[in-house]
Amino acid sequence: MSQTIVALDCMGGDNAPGEIIKGGIEALKENKDVFLKMVGRQEDVNRELEKYDYDKTRVEVVNATEVIETGEPPVVAIRTKKDSSLVKCMYMVKHGECDALVSAGSTGATLVGGHVIVGRIKGVERPPLAPLIPTEKGGALLIDCGANVDAKPSNLVQFAQMGSIYMENICKVKNPKVGLVNIGAEEEKGNNLAKETYQLLSNLEGINFIGNIEAREIPEGKADVVVCDAFVGNVILKMYEGVGGVLLKKVKGTLMTSLKTKIGALLIKKELKETMKTFQMDQYGGAPLLGLKGLVVKTHGNSKAIEVKNSIIQCISFKEMNINDKISKKLAVKKEN
Amino acid sequence: MSQTIVALDCMGGDNAPGEIIKGGIEALKENKDVFLKMVGRQEDVNRELEKYDYDKTRVEVVNATEVIETGEPPVVAIRTKKDSSLVKCMYMVKHGECDALVSAGSTGATLVGGHVIVGRIKGVERPPLAPLIPTEKGGALLIDCGANVDAKPSNLVQFAQMGSIYMENICKVKNPKVGLVNIGAEEEKGNNLAKETYQLLSNLEGINFIGNIEAREIPEGKADVVVCDAFVGNVILKMYEGVGGVLLKKVKGTLMTSLKTKIGALLIKKELKETMKTFQMDQYGGAPLLGLKGLVVKTHGNSKAIEVKNSIIQCISFKEMNINDKISKKLAVKKEN
């Protein structure tokens, strides 16, 4: 088995560089095929690395003097901060020095950098950001959550195709069910984008289109690939966080109301925590930005080591399954028809 | 105090006519100013009414032989079923025989009937459907959740104005905070609709615009009036149901895993149920369809008596506070500027 070389943006994210580098070390331990290029301020990276005992033949530290902050305008940041950890990671993927990059830094800068530096696969109109979201039946791919807020029907069709390839090959879901987010099940429902996309997806071969799904059915796990524009995708993702967070807080508050409930809480605490874990975003790795010439994986800004590790491990399957070749072939076939 | 005359669609909804009529009876008991015109198949309505002891001087049964089913195409249903309970209710509002109507029937038919039969207040471009949704800090108005899926910026501006009037007068929120649903806080974020609407709302006097809010902040209660197009509004509403429902199911499952957790469950059951109640949709009354010449209130399809009752009671404040006059004046002022 060949090595998968991952550029790790050690300076991006709320918990950088500590948790990022810790996650990298854990990935090295979990899988012998991982080689990491740890990109960031050399002295910071080395200081963290000194804390661990690890296989030094599979780590290279790449110095990058600048850091892109969360609030910076993405386009400006990518253009001007050439010596930032993120931009350096992007160029390493572009030049084939790495198979993939993982960053917990600015989403905007990652999207812009992916487009501008790494570049699109021929035939891909808009590269979508596609996180795995928890459902009652396991994970589903929410595609798009990225920057394509004013998407066209043909963009959404490509999202459906790329998402199917991802779920089939990376998540091993056979014949993944593709659902179009809409306000009702009937085909005449929805806004213009949804109505036109419905028609295109209905006539498309090679995907398992199950029709419209209502947002309520997403957490229920009705579809494996949840197709929508990035505005709606963002609302879905944030509603998961918002409703989940508030409900959890309310439950916790309830458990503390009296001595009786406090005793009850002690009895269920461990199990409840386990349950809640299965419904949290960070149980999965990061979100791939699909349709680029290399793999760019964005993990949550508040990622801890475990999520960083999962994101790195995810890159191995992505490379082994030749996802980009498959996307390239799939979209090329469509163009010929 | 004068009477508020409400037309109650006794045949609409999953639990009609039983729960609808029960809710009507409860409203009569709770407030002496309520007069109900109970519209539906006479024999069905009378059979239900016989179960209760109530003030017969405040009830009139209006016979309607037809029923609009949930699956029917709304436009066709409204046009052809002239003797349906819903269409009869609509005409009674239009002709001023009633102050308001309450229906748990088809949302589509209610929206269409509201537009076509009751008609818009002059100056209102698109009447939005605006349910109250639960937040950590109480209720917020989600406006629009109706049929305006391809809305224009000027529509959303009117939603902000009408929503502010509603929250201030009906829910007694002083200077209600208006938030525009977007994918980030910064004003340059979002799709074209959001960006243009942001500019218009920023320059609008007479509302308390707090800027963009992310979907995560909706359940947290950051805004009192949550402005969006109906597609996004539908996604928000359904995500509440979906995430809430799945999490609750998971928590319940956890409580049943062992003898220990079952004992724990017994100790927290009552309190947990109370907590969950505060985060359910049906704690509030129905959703008003704002901007019409009369009041049309749509309650959930699965409404039980309590929600029907709350919806009817809501009509009293709506009438007393002269909401329609206020909307009419507000939007007229805007036109003159």
Structure description:
Chains A, B: InterPro entries: FA_synthesis, Phospholipid_synth_PlsX-like. Chains A, B: This is Phosphate acyltransferase. Chains A, B: It catalyses: a fatty acyl-[ACP] + phosphate = an acyl phosphate + holo-[ACP]. Two copies of one chain form a homodimer. Chain A is an alpha/beta fold and 337 residues long. Chain A has two domains: 4-124 and 291-321, 3-Layer(aba) Sandwich (Isopropylmalate Dehydrogenase); 132-279, Isopropylmalate Dehydrogenase. Chain A contains eleven helices and eleven strands. The first copy, chain A, is globular and about 60 Å long. The model of chain A has no long low-confidence stretch (mean pLDDT 92). Chains A and B meet through α8 and α9 of A and α8 and α9 of B.
